[in-house]
Design brief:
The protein is globular, with a radius of gyration of 17 Å. It is built from no helices and 14 strands. Strand 10 and strand 11 form a beta hairpin. It is mainly beta and 207 residues long.
């Protein structure tokens, strides 16, 4: 199947998952010609490839989606970021709840508009735990915006997108240790996070 949302820019499907009631959900991101963030779309198909709905983000600011999670048979949670270059530190994590029936937005969580160091940059992946909390991973900057101060983080949110805490791996901010989380999953009562890049100076402690 091929499909297109409302954007005029090239789109790429980034991830998909099968829901508990056997539908295929996923998201795509589009970029401007200079490879900047533009917008995202979320979609739902049945397992025969028949579209149920395709919804395009309406925020006028550049936004990327980094995950879509089934929180219940009637609701999905979208993990995204607003890439607003007019902000002191961008992008800003934000979450939305969308209807499983038509993809309409049910609620929008707080926009975490960080203005101090350390600050969360991208949220690359997440999962819902059995006790109904959302955990995300991605990259956090500890010392300005230099790549060497990038570390993986773990954040906990409730089902309304409200942040409970964020922890990050300890490595001295002065170290050139570019490391960030790129995936996370929950299975058999434990979570697994995948990280990428320069890991030789990384430690297993959290702060």
């Amino acid at each position: 199947r091929t499909f297109r949302s409302q954007t005029n820019y090239p789109e790429i499907v980034c991830d998909m998952a099968v829901t508990s009631d056997n539908f295929l959900i996923g998201y795509s991101n589009s970029t401007t010609p200079d490879a900047g963030a533009s917008s995202f779309a979320i979609f739902k198909f049945d397992l025969n490839g028949t579209p149920q709905w395709i919804n395009h983000s309406t925020d006028p600011r550049p936004t990327y989606c980094h995950g879509i999670i089934e929180s219940s048979p009637s609701q999905y949670i979208v993990l995204s970021g607003i890439y607003d270059i007019s902000d002191p530190l961008f992008p800003d994590p934000i979450q939305q709840g969308v209807s499983a029936f038509d993809g309409s937005v049910l609620w929008t969580g707080p926009r975490y508009n960080y203005t101090t160091i350390p600050y969360i940059d991208d949220c690359y992946a997440g999962f819902m735990s059995p006790d109904s909390f959302i955990y995300t991973t991605g990259r956090i900057y500890l010392n300005g915006s230099s790549p060497g101060s990038m570390r993986p983080f773990l954040s906990k949110f409730n089902l309304l997108g409200q942040q409970i805490w964020t922890k990050y791996y300890i490595a001295p901010p002065s170290d050139e240790a570019r490391v960030y989380g790129i995936d996370a999953l929950f299975n058999n009562n434990s979570s697994t996070r995948c990280y990428f890049e320069e890991i030789s100076t990384y430690t297993s402690d959290f702060q």
